[in-house]
Amino acid sequence: MFKRPTKKQLLFRRIVVLTIMALAVVVIVSGTILFILGYRLDGDKGRLEQGALVQFDSRPNGADVLIDGKSIRANTPSKQSIVAGTHSFMVRKDKYETWTKNLSVKAGTLTWLDYIRLVPKELKTESVASYETIYGEKASPDNKWLLIQEVAATPTFQLVDLRSQQIKSTTLELPATAYSESGNPDVQHTFTMQSWDENGRYTLVNHTYAGKSEYIVLDTQNVNASVNISNLLSISLDSVVFTGTSGNVLYGLSTDGTIRKLDLSAATISRPLVTHVKSFDLYDTNIISYVGINPDNAAQQVVGLYRDGDATPRVLETVNSLETPLRIDATQYYNDDVVAISEGLKVTILRGDYPSATDVKNASLKQYAQFTAVANVDKLSFSNEGNFLVAQSGLTFVGYEIEYMRFTNGTIPTSETQAHPLSWLDDAYLWAVYDGHLSIREFDGTNTHVIMKMEPGFDATLSQNGRYLYGVGKAADGKYQLQRVQMILN
């Protein structure tokens, strides 16, 4: 016979149910929070440990990912949570070389391995154009164009379109009105391509003649609109860099060591922005990094920054020697300004906020890291995204990761004794030509691959979609050829 529970029994049951529900909520919420924070149960140790999250991606994607020899049963792009410590990572895909890396990850961190470039096992070099000679070749930063100059003495260029599989070439010739002494048959001319603007339309050309030098902006889309900077502004220049994408605004270093802003559309020159400068570069569109001599002490070198609109430049380091090699490079990583300075062997990285023209007090550009190279640094350069720094010293280099504050020493294996510069192929890979071959490697020296035969002194570049890697080589008959290797298979 059913007996109706008493009020005490009902109350007790309710308390038990509510307690169980509350505990369940606490367990679920706690478990979710721990899971988000990366905590996992380590079956071997029988305890809860905070792990690390690793994000994978590759070009091409759809590759298998293995951690410590075990598949994660997911293809790139993918992610996996692992326990903190040192692990071996492997990414593999049929018909491609296996990518490997050993890496130590910390608990509670996110590691990005999303820059992986898989290289085909079979690399076939294809010639796409032939030339009797090539004096110069420059790749645009947007990977759309190549500008090829066959003869130094004539201002004729081949504009090669890399945007489709079947490449096309257009002949460009500077008009005689764009350079000095064009009608004098007794004058020897040399035209040398310097650099592209970021938008991939304009190219700086240095013209030397009769012991003089001038700079010309070559408009590759409208060659008749090309401008002779030196003649227009009546200024003698040692070097010039583009700023912005109009092709009309540049910064120039005059022969007296002064940096000025040049506006071609208005035909104006700014006041002196920085003086006593030996070399300079530009990051973003308005911040100049430079190496120079202390205006107040000719026995000292300085490195500094100047932001367009500031009253004066800001010296970041002073060195009491004119013999010590100094280098500087600057970039932006997420919302932080990052500056690297090399003084001989020592490399110092500053991170924070560069002071604005109107708010100097809130500047927080402070020392972030420091390391020592094996020899004096010859080249200091950040990747395009600002997450990696490479300091090259001859045939050795140091790759530094800004996010994780770790550096790796690398060496270039070669029979050559003369070092060639390492250049960025993309945001994580470097290229160089040694022993007559183009090779690529990651910023830390790992996953090195020899791609094809190539002549030194020319640019290597990926096509815009990353399918082909282009370079300049020589055929068996001695002619130069524009050639490519397919990096992403059909």
Q: How are the SSEs ordered, and which strands pair?
A:
Elements: H1 7-36, E1 39-42, E2 47-59, E3 64-67, E4 70-75, E5 78-83, E6 85-92, E7 99-105, E8 110-117, E9 125-131, E10 136-139, E11 145-149, E12 156-161, E13 168-173, E14 189-196, E15 202-209, E16 212-219, E17 227-228, H2 229-233, E18 237-242, E19 249-254, E20 259-263, E21 268-269, E22 277-283, E23 287-294, E24 297-307, E25 314-319, E26 326-333, E27 336-343, E28 346-352, E29 366-372, E30 379-382, E31 388-393, E32 396-401, E33 406-411, E34 423-424, E35 429-434, E36 437-442, E37 449-453, E38 461-462, E39 468-474, E40 480-486
Parallel strand pairs: 2-8
Antiparallel strand pairs: 1-2, 2-5, 3-4, 3-6, 6-7, 9-40, 10-11, 11-12, 12-13, 14-15, 15-16, 16-17, 18-19, 19-20, 20-21, 22-23, 23-24, 24-25, 26-27, 27-28, 28-29, 30-31, 31-32, 32-33, 34-35, 35-36, 36-37, 38-39, 39-40
Describe the structure in your own words.
- The chain is built from two helices and 40 strands.
- By secondary structure, the protein is mainly beta.
- The model has no long low-confidence stretch (mean pLDDT 92).
